[in-house]
Amino acid sequence: MFFALQGDIMKDPEIETFAALQWAYITIWNVIFQLAYPCLGILCDLPTILEIKEHVLIKQLKTYREIIFASIILPVGIFITFVFWPIYLYDRELIFPAFIDKVLSQGSNHVMHTAIFLIIAWEFIFLPKSAPESHKVNLAHIFGCYLSYLIVLFSTHYRIGAWPYPLLKLALGTIFFPMIFIGVGVLIHLIYFAQWPINKLIWKTKEVVKEN
Asked: Where are the transmembrane segments (predicted)?
């Protein structure tokens, strides 16, 4: 996509606006998360790969890897997959207008909106995790990320005068506009908490008392 946004195609007003809005797409944020997380995983696995003693820093990184996966990677990735496709299939112009096909193939579309679910499922199933005694740190990561995204989203709209998703333009000025953002926050919150009973079912782990 980044290579496609070069040359004469940038003379297209729709593509020019799309390029200016790209950092306001939550999918682009998720791509960065999905690329950074495996790098963190490789660092955590280096002692095993190199057969060396595990440094205390690696132990801390492993702890943080669990936090990042539970609070960012899983909730955001699952949210994107299960919200994007129903809206796309109903009316793609609400979330992913057809003009984007000029710079983003359907294959790339599936990489960003379908494959992420399979990758998350693989990690969730094969890497054991335990529920934290307190969810405060994880929730701080979730809503810190969401707040950061909202700041970028609204500041981008202020600068450019456009929304990345046409659905927001249609909802602007109605009760549905704030309800969209409230609904997103609630759904991500539910996805986060849903992972623990599923994790327990997979690994038959003993439930840890949670401090909400």
From this structure: 20-46, 67-90, 110-127, 139-158, 170-194
Helices (H), 111-175: 116-126, 136-160, 166-171
CA proximity to 1, closest of 105, 78, 80: 105
Total number of domains in the chain: 1
Residue 190 belongs to a domain: yes
* Gap between the Cα atoms of 142 and 186, Å rounded: 11
Q: Which domain holds residue 182?
A: 7-203
**What is the rounded CA–CA span in Å between residue 209 and residue 189?**
18
What is the pLDDT, as a whole number, of residue 211?
46
Residue 211 lies in a domain: no
Is 212 inside a domain boundary? Answer: no
Q: Give the E-state strand segments of the chain in sequence order.
A: none
Distance from C-alpha of 160 to C-alpha of 154, rounded to nearest angstrom:
10
13 within 8 A of 99, measured Cβ to Cβ = no
- Encode pLDDT of 90-116 as tens digits: 999 999 999 999 988 899 999 999 999
